[in-house]
């Protein structure tokens, strides 16, 4: 049957759908991790706890250190000449070993010189110390001579392994004791010490002497 109406044009949907597909495909983006606010709060609280623990620990250690220093400050210091005699007496236990004995005797005098006169004897060799000793005014000439002979004899037993008899070793001990006795500080009366009044016998002797 013939009709005069215009023809209906139907668009080709297959070609349109084909042309709408992009030429390149992109990967799917990874999911973004969303951090909770409470997680930040937890990190902040943890950091504050660590800071507080470190603060109180440092404060505690500082307090203990000050207490230790205060105890040491109140503790009476042992005089240098007393320590030297104790070390010299302890060396007698090694009389059977000349080398060990001479090391102990020599160290006792060396540390005494450092504590008593601030002479750097323990850190130096005998030659270095004797060279320094010549320019020191802490000791007189006789004591310097005694020290030189004493240290050289100790070095002979320590390094040259010289055979020394018991009497020779004992003489080194005696020299050390005598040196300490002659160079120790003079005894000073304590403040407030009472001076004993002269007896009647002393008074009679003084009056007779005056007459």
Mean pLDDT: 76
Backbone CA Rg: 47 Å
How many distinct beta strands?
0
Tally the helices: what do you get? 8
- General shape: elongated
**Through-space gap between termini:** 185 Å
- Assign the structural class, choosing from mainly alpha, mainly beta, alpha/beta, alpha+beta, or little secondary structure: mainly alpha
Explain what the structure shows.
With 211 residues, the chain is an all-alpha fold. Among the domains are: 30 residues; 104 residues, no CATH class. Helices cover 64% and strands 0% of the residues. The longest helix is centred in the first third of the chain and has 38 residues. It is elongated, with a radius of gyration of 47 Å. The termini are far apart.
Give the SSE map:
Elements (H helix, E strand, L loop, with lengths): L12 H8 L16 H38 L5 H12 L6 H20 L8 H9 L6 H18 L7 H18 L16 H11 L1
Helix pairs in contact: 3-4, 3-7, 4-6, 4-7, 5-6, 6-7
Question: Nutshell version of this structure?
Answer:
By secondary structure, the chain is mainly alpha-helical. It has helices at 13-20, 37-74, 80-91, 98-117, 126-134, 141-158, 166-183, 200-210.
Descriptive keywords:
mainly alpha; 211 residues; single chain
């Amino acid at each position: 049957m013939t009709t005069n109406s215009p023809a209906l044009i139907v668009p080709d949907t297959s070609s349109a759908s084909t042309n709408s597909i992009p030429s390149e495909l992109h990967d799917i983006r990874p999911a973004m991790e969303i951090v909770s606010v409470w997680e930040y709060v937890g990190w902040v609280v943890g950091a504050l706890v660590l800071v507080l623990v470190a603060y109180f620990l440092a404060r505690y250690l500082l307090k203990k250190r000050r207490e230790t220093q205060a105890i040491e400050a109140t503790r009476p210091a042992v005089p240098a000449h007393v320590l030297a005699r104790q070390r010299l007496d302890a060396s007698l236990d090694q009389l059977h070993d000349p080398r060990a004995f001479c090391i102990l005797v020599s160290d006792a005098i060396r540390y005494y010189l450092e504590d008593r006169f601030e002479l750097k004897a323990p850190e130096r060799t005998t030659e270095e110390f004797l060279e320094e000793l010549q320019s020191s005014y802490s000791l007189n000439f006789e004591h310097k001579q005694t020290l030189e002979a004493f240290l050289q004899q100790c070095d002979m037993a320590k390094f040259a392994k010289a055979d020394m008899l018991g009497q020779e070793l004992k003489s080194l001990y005696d020299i050390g004791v005598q040196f300490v006795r002659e160079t120790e500080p003079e005894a000073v009366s304590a403040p407030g010490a009472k001076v004993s009044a002269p007896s009647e016998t002393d008074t009679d002797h003084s009056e007779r002497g005056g007459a």
